[in-house]
Design a protein that fits this description.
Helix content: 40-55%
Number of strands: 6
Largest sheet: 6 strands, parallel
Distance between the termini: 43 Å
Shape: elongated
Radius of gyration: 30 Å
Length: 361
């Protein structure tokens, strides 16, 4: 997409600082986790682009391409990998580039309302994910008394309208649900393609009966009527950068702010926590030390001379030595300390941590 390329020079200052070792480790961690999941399920696996790039379309495109390249290297077919991006304006435009120019399947997450979902689908997203709990909570805060979770709950109707919109226009997209608070919410949704469940909810599956059904063609519910009345296609992606939100209805803008941006903030905190764990593990596994070139060769030559002297002394000695190998080592180190200019002791004193990225050989 040309609009992304034109903004590349304007958004360099917004790209986070490059940390090649940590970034590579994080990417490999998520890819290895996804590869393990691919062995357990026949369908596609969903990988995530760092949500801290949510306002940088160029960075999201670059990171998504890098992740998919790692799967390509592992001989995983493209149809089995779906890259998740936050459904911000930059995320939607990044999804359009990945779909049209790089044939990468995308999932736009934290979608909040029908106009929002329509823009994501027209960008080429294979999946759109709606936060059930976040949407229902927003409506529950707006209305008193709090509406019961039922088919006529305004939050349920909003999600159901998006499903009916996809089915009515026969769009090549799947609606996924996440952040489900209880089974009752999931029971009132029809036509969804999948649901992200917590560990506790997964444990409850054997005790629950869940039937997936699709709205009938003669359905006269409010969600179906609204879906049929909604324009298709829309012109949201034709807007200038920064004006996407202004084209949406006021209620939709408020819903997006409450669901999308609040949860992006939470995801940033989680990513920082994961990154901190990975960083600590790197510190334990990698211990680099630096030695200046002169000191390195000085120690190397000292070790060679000491080894040569030890070998000559053993050859010249007729009687077998009663000292153990450990005592011999102590005597060598003691004699080495007397040769201060070229001893191992001096070499150790001059060592400092290696500078990452510098080639010392």
């Amino acid at each position: 997409m040309k609009v992304v390329e034109q903004d590349r020079h304007l958004r360099k200052d917004r790209t986070p600082r490059k940390r090649p070792l940590l970034d590579a480790t994080m990417d490999q961690f998520f890819v290895e986790l996804s590869l393990a999941l691919l062995d357990l399920c026949p369908g596609p696996v969903i990988v995530f682009v760092d949500p801290r790039f949510h306002d940088n379309a160029v960075a999201m495109v670059d990171r998504a391409r890098h992740l998919v390249a790692l799967f390509d290297k592992a001989n995983v077919r493209r149809w089995r990998v779906v890259v998740t991006l936050p459904a911000t304006e930059d995320g939607i435009r990044a999804a359009a580039v990945l779909t049209e120019e790089h044939s990468i399947q995308t999932n736009l997450s934290l979608v909040s309302c029908l106009p929002h979902a329509a823009a994501c689908i027209e960008a080429g997203a294979k999946m759109v994910t709606m936060s059930v709990g976040g949407i229902l909570e927003w409506y529950e805060q707006q209305q008193k008394p709090v509406p019961k979770v039922a088919v006529d709950h305004p939050g349920i109707e909003t999600i159901q309208t998006c499903v009916s919109y996809i089915l009515h226009n026969k769009l090549n997209a799947t609606l996924m649900t996440a952040d489900i608070r209880n089974w009752t919410e999931l029971k009132h949704l029809s036509g969804i393609g999948g649901a992200a469940l917590t560990e506790k909810q997964l444990d409850q599956i054997p005790m629950r009966t869940l039937t997936t059904w699709f709205p009938r063609s003669n359905d006269t519910s409010r969600s179906t009527i609204d879906a049929r009345a909604a324009p298709y296609p829309t012109r949201y992606l034709e807007s200038k950068r920064g004006f996407f939100m202004s084209l949406l209805p006021a209620e939709c803008r408020s819903l997006i702010s409450a669901v999308l941006y609040v949860r992006i903030g939470q995801m940033k905190v989680w990513m920082e926590e994961i990154e901190a764990v990975v960083k600590d593990e790197l510190r334990h596994r990698i211990k680099l030390e630096k030695m200046d070139v002169i000191g390195m060769y000085r120690c190397k030559s000292w070790v060679r001379r000491r080894a040569s002297k030890d070998a000559d002394r053993k050859k010249s000695s007729r009687a077998p030595s009663r000292r153990s190998s450990s005592s011999s080592l102590v005597s060598v180190l003691d004699s080495g300390q007397r040769e201060k200019p070229r001893s191992l002791l001096d070499c150790k004193r001059t060592t400092t941590p290696l500078v990452e990225g510098v080639d010392y050989f």
